[in-house]
Amino acid sequence: MNAPSRDTMLLTTPFHSRVAAMCGLNDWGNWMGYTTPNAYFDVELEYFAVRSTTGVFDLSPMNKYRITGPDAEAYLNRMVTRNVSKIGVNRVGYAVWCNDAGEVMDDGTIFRLGKDDFRLCSYQRADDWLEWCRLGFDVRIQNETEDIAALAVQGPTSCTVLSLLGLDNLNELKPFGMAHYTFEGAPLMVSRTGFTGDLGYEVWVAPEQAEALWDQLFERGKDYLIKPIGSYALDIARIEAGFLQARVDFVPAEETVRPGRARSPFELGLAWLVDFNKPLFNGRAALLSEKAKGSRYRFALLDVDGNKPAHHSFILKGDKQVGTVTSAAWCPTAKSNLAYAQIEMPHGAVGDELVAEIYYQRELHWTRLLAPCKVIEAPLFNPKRRRQTPAPPY
To answer: Among 238, 244, 290, 351, which residue is least crowded by beta carbons within 10 Å?
Structure first.
């Protein structure tokens, strides 16, 4: 048998030597072509590290694009639905971008590093789409995914632990702000961003400094019970906080095979990201039409009775199926059984009472459970420390 070539093997991140050494469960997944841990030692304990102390997640596989040039702002404003001109220098903005039909291609974050200097971070690879959208704009686009290593450092003690690295005045950084430091003689950037809904930061360095950053972070943080976390624990935290995940809660429009499977920002509960007062953007006409006529679906956050997560469940109104669950989890801190669902209009308004048709297996026996559920307005986990400035010391 021929050995696999490097072209067919999963890539490793700059932190891999440290990640592999701590991954006692040897439970690995594939994130956009990179081998990443699903869990290190115990999913629930990893989750509680984020909610009680500090959890560290390797973000390096995130697709990162540097967009520069005199038309950089106009280019991004044409591509995404929100008004990029309102994102100040050293600030970060969440955004979605659509095709001409108003269907979401992906979501991501826009880092404004300078007047004409941006970094776009996305879950999906977007090289072709970014190039197609570049027509008529004086911009330069560089895929710098392999040039930047990144860690999400999340949880109540995250600011305290990072400050021990010599990151002065980090506690003064506001949510969605950026600060620049020097680490091991090289640039280090910290953003007060994350995917957990808690106090937290993302740290960005060159790959050459990755292992030193990991070592010093865990050395300084050991008295604060710092732990690495995998994708399973992160998934519980993001569901509890109300964050969507591409390829889970929506199918990127570029990947849909069957008609009607893509979703608009309105159908994902992201109407607040659509600014019709700014200049022309991709999908504007289609979204204006949808706003006038109404959407096909409504994104709903459900509080489900019981403790059986409603994974892949049908949602019923009486005897009629009106929706499907896209994400579900028992959320320990919120003490709630939460689910995200795509509900057919006009159902799914806040306060609407529905039923989740849940199937679960115990000892080879399948059980059908009809669990009452209620549409709630907002995530149940939303701690004050998430946006508190100065960040509280722990």
So the answer is: 351
> Would you call 271 helix, strand, or coil by DSSP?
helix
Mean pLDDT of 296-319: 96
Distance from C-alpha of 347 to C-alpha of 153, rounded to nearest angstrom? 38
120-138 pLDDT, tens digit each: 999 889 999 999 999 999 9
CATH of domain 16-60+148-229: 3.30.1360.120
**pLDDT in the model for residue 5:** 46
The CATH code belonging to domain 296-381 is 2.40.30.110
Domain boundaries, the chain: 16-60+148-229, 296-381
Which of these, 394, 379, 349, 97, lies nearest to 238 by C-alpha position?
379
pLDDT of residue 45: 97
What is the predicted pLDDT for the residue at 7? 56
* Residues sharing a CB contact under 8 Å with residue 89, sequence separation 6 or more, in sequence order: 112, 113, 114, 115
**0.70 exceeded by pTM:** yes
Looking at this protein, which amino acid is placed at residue 109?
A: T
Reduce the DSSP state of residue 141 to 3 states and report it. Answer: strand
CA distance 93 to 193: 10
Number of residues that this document lists for the chain: 394
Output the six-digit token pair for 328: 């579900």
User: Residue 208 burial (CB < 10 Å; 0-12/13-18/19+)?
Assistant: exposed
Residue 374 neighbours by CB under 8 Å, 6+ apart: 302, 303, 351, 352, 353, 354
pLDDT in tens, 215-238: 999 999 999 999 999 999 999 999
Model confidence at 310: pLDDT above 80: yes
Task: Say if CB 354 and CB 169 are below 8 A apart.
Answer: no
CA 8 to chain centre: 27
Sheet order of strands, 140-143 included = 91-98, 104-114, 117-122, 63-68, 140-143
- pLDDT, residue 126, reads 93
